[in-house]
Amino acid sequence: MGGHSHDHDMPLQEFRRHTGAITLIVIGARPAPKSVDSILEIANAAHFHEEESFVARSDNGSIEYVPCSLSEHPILQLISEGRLQYKIIVSGSPYGDLPYLAPGTYYNWIEFVEGPDHDEGRWVARIVSEEGAVASVVTGVEVKQIFAFHLDDATLAEHKKPSVHVHGIGIGEVSDNFPTARWASSTSGWAPMGNGCCRVVSCQPER
Prior knowledge:
Helices cover 14% and strands 39% of the residues. It is mainly beta. A 6-stranded antiparallel beta sheet has the order 1-2-3-4-5-6. The longest helix is centred in the first third of the chain and has 10 residues, at 36-45. The protein is globular, with a radius of gyration of 17 Å.
C-alpha cells in the first residue's frame, strides 16, 4: 500500500524506506487466535490514555480513537498472541461509508495469521464491539518499525507517548483525489535507541 507510509510528524524528505525483508521463521504450533471473549477480557483490564485520543468529527457525529498503553516487546506480542491497539467510540453516524460502525464502543485487535500451508502470513485486525460481536475484519494491515535518529528532547517525549491518528492516502494534491480513503495509524511500542528512538507502528485501512 503506497503513499501513506511516511511518519506524519517528520519532514517527508528525511525518510528512507528500506524494503529489504527480515525473514521470520516460526517453529512449532502457534497459539490459536484469541476468542472474542478473551479480547473483551483483555480490553476490560487495559489502561486507555484518554489524554492522547484522536477525534474525527463530521456534521452527523464523531469517532474517538483512544490508544492503550504501549508494550515492551510489541512485535513479539503481535506475532505470538495478538495485541489490543485502541478503543473506538462512535457517536451518531459520522461516516456514511462505514455502516458497520453503529453508535457504540469497539476494540481494535491486531494479530498475525498464517496461511493454510504455513508458508505465508498476514497481519489482520478485528474490530470487536463491547457486546461481543465482530463488526469488521481488516486484512490490509501494515506493521512497521520506525527508527528515528538525532531527535531533540521534545520530539523524543512526544514519540514515547501512546498515539493513534487517522490520515488519508498521499500528500498535497494527490490526497484530494481520494477524499474517502482513510488509514488509522497507532503506536504499539517505543524504545530509546542511541541518539533517537524506535517505534512499532500499525496502519490499517478504514474501508
